[in-house]
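User: Quick one: structure for sequence A, then sequence B.

Assistant: Sequence A:
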Amino acid sequence: MFTQEAVRKLSAHLGEPDWMLQKRLDAFALFEQMSLPTIEEEAWRRTNIRRLKLDKIGPSVNGDGSKELPSRVRSQLTETPAGGEIVQVDGDTLSYTISDELKAQGVIYCDMSTAVNEHPELVQKYFMNQAVPASDGYFAALHGAFWRGGSFLYVPRNVQMAAPVHTSLWNASGKTFTHTLVVLETGAEAVFSDEYGSETGKGQYLHNGAVELIVGDNASLTYVSIQEFGDNMWQFTHERGRVGRDGKLDWIMSIMGTGLMKAFQTMELDQPGGWGRMSGLFFGDKRQHFDLDTQQNHNAPNTDSDLLYKGAMKHQARSVWQGMIKSKKEAQKTNGFQANRNLLLESTARADSIPGLEIEADDVACTHASTVGKVDEEELFYLMSRGIPRELALRIIVQGFFDPIMQRIPFEGVQQRIAEQVIEKVGSLVE
């Protein structure tokens, strides 16, 4: 059960200092004042979660690190050997490495619980203070009270990380509350990837996560997220990136798993010269339901944002994308673009695409586009007329559809992993 006693038990189990316990209790107080979202709320109008049995799932205190992990969890995804790697099961760190070179640069990369105890001055400053506050919503407050696991990356001023870092987060017990916090000081550069996964088990599984990306002035972050949860997972996540003056955030995500997902993903361009790009790829089958709520907030003049989300849906899967570009009155010379492209592979699948603009400035270039369509039969016929079997022709079309997103992924290993997932999902259409 999600109770105040459970908050205290979790904090004590993790050996946390009093300030973190108090932060959890404050979040729980907010949670108690909120109700489970319903379709009466605009943000949740197309996603009904009344069948979610939260109290039967409960918080994660003791994980299940005894289960053997799939080999792909530990596989190398980058051409350059990772400078640091964390593998976690249910929030417990199973293995951890960081190179001497990154240590010499002053880079801090560790699991979140270690960061709380060994780097409290940094965690207190940034954790759920600047990017994802507990007040962001019902599941943000629940996360603030019961978060467990995840990773912390801090890159000092003017440091260009010698190698990327990679965290694998595995859900074995059926419930995880992982937290990612990335902080780049002025002039820093980093590449970081998160990988989420689970097998399909019995009953309802839960992932209630948060991602906070803080990009300082003239800093540059490439953040890649790969999600391949089992079909019985209910995923709720609040994710926000904040970009300083002349900073850059290249944010790339692949979504293949879960039974139901609701994600709030926000880019905040806080200072002039800020640049942000959001690239999303998702493929739903069976009865999967993806609801992606994106925001590109231009809070200062001379900022640029670009969003491209592409999804393929089949069987009785459904996707919802709600996107908004906001430009404050003072945010003149804003350049914002968003596009959502959807490919329906069967008539029973559905995709809702809802772009939006909220512009207060009068000197901007902000546009949006969205499409929902079926596989072009002429394209399919053309490939088949060249002797290509229908199954392979369909696969080629789908891979070509996703290629603009794939080209934005900086690692060949990640591209290959996602390509394999796409092939597997296409294959089940023609069995």
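Sequence B:
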Amino acid sequence: MKASYHKYILQFKQASGTSRGIMTEKETWFIIVESNGKKGIGECGILRTLSIDDRPDYEQKLQWICDNIDLGKDELWEQLIEFPSIQFGVEMAFLSLESENPYILFPSNFTNGTQSISINGLVWMGEEAFMKQQIAEKLAQGFNCIKLKIGAIDFQKELGLLTFIRRNFDEKTIEIRVDANGGFTSNEALVKLNQLAGFKLHSIEQPIQINQHDSMSELCKTTPIPIALDEELIGVFSLEEKEQLLLKIRPQYIILKPSLVGGIRGTTEWIELANRLSIGWWITSALESNIGLNAIAQFTFMQNNAMPQGLGTGGLYTNNFDCPLEVSQGQLWYRSDLEWNCNLL
């Protein structure tokens, strides 16, 4: 068996506002494994400044993987505990190699095109007019769950955007999730949550910054809106640490990004803990190319979670890979009659 890695720069169609500023491009890495004339591909979807493995030795670790690929998926996963995006890339590459079709990692009614995955429509941060335009587009596209990133503009204007939605659509018609990306201080958070409560929101992600476990725990006890942990889960490696965090904070939901929490195995550990503690969860992509999105979507379908998932649409980039994933009426479909076009395999 042999392996190689390749850097790839994804170019955004338009500059996209996130909690880490404006993004015009996104770096990602691919691992290609080869054995007996077959190839498999995995994506290491690092998010600079957010991923715990955003480290100077990242590329060095990719080379180490290639030099030690014969250790196999499970042993490599253990050795990569501090590199969750590479853990996921390795898992993906081995599944791809072992599959009859390198792009069908989890054969199911999703990959045969008979069932879909409900997803939320993401509204990017930006000026009020731009966000309002996106909201109108998502509603016209048939989404019944909208995720709104807040914290980029004046809070009163953000309340105005929510008023704009609720004036036209009640909570039974459109589910609204908001993501604060830690934008509230612990002192003001409850006041702002009470202001938001009138809009009948499904949930709010990460209202305050990470590592304020006492404050977050208290907030989860008193909040009028269900709270979902997101960034809080990054860098929590061991099963014991994961359990301690959930027992301490007791959130209403957790949000799982496989590229940030240790891939399939890491995500499965969080899901099993959440189910045991009666904590809700959903899975989200993290700006991966269609290679990574494909793996996340197929894995997500296998979890039988009927809630809208936070899966991207693959349409953000000018140089993404053509693939069978397609969004229609707020649902992600795998159109088995469409072809992949990936020059890496």
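Residues 37 and 63 are 22 Å apart (CA to CA). The two ends are 15 Å apart (CA to CA).

User: Thanks, that's what I needed.
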